[in-house]
Amino acid sequence: MITGLSHVSIVVPSLQAAAKRLDELYGLTLGEVKVNEQQGVRLAYVELGNAKIELMEPLRPDSPVSKFLERNPGGGIHHFCLAVDSVDATAGRITQQGARVLGDGKPQHNVHGERIAFVHPRDFLGALVELEEHRD
Q1: CATH number reported for the structural domain that contains residue 94 in this entry
Q2: How far apart are CA 59 and CA 75, in angstroms?
Q3: Comparison of pLDDT for 79 and 105, the residue scoring more
Q4: Global pTM?
Q5: DSSP 23-57
């Protein structure tokens, strides 16, 4: 079951430059920089109460984020993330309805250790969607 919006992810060429701009223009503070080796990104969040903005910078040239920057050198919105009770249950349900979940079927995790999966953009109105499991 989808429980809410978790965050919007923006790809940036430089976390440091993005953090400086967000602080100067909007007074927003970037949290701790983390690395997700599996996804090939360095990332940090701006906390906004009921949602977050995730900034991602490529860690290596073969990451999907690097490929995104090749097409969009200034960066931009990469995907949005929906919080779900169970990635497996949600992915199973939407797959039965004809949606495509990306990847090789191996479990993926974010930097917090939560299960994640991605839904093909053609199956969500042209937007890449991340499903992120939140267990309370």
Answers
A1: 3.10.180.10
A2: 15
A3: 79
A4: 0.88
A5: HHHH-------EEETTTTEEEEEEE-SS-EEEEEE
Cβ pair 92, 9 in contact under 8 A: no
Please count the structural domains in the chain.
1
State the residue range of the domain holding 46: 2-133
Scan for tokens 């199973």, then name that residue.
92
Alpha-carbon distance of 78 to 26, in angstroms, equals 21
Residue 134 has pLDDT above 90, yes or no: no
> Is the confidence at residue 135, as pLDDT, over 80?
no
Q: Which residues are catalytic?
A: 130
Q: From 72, 90, 77, 71, select the one nearest 121 (Cα to Cα).
A: 77
- CB burial of residue 106 (10 Å; 0-12, 13-18, 19+): exposed
Residue 136 has pLDDT above 70, yes or no: no
The rounded distance, in Å, linking the Cα atoms of 21 and 119 is: 31
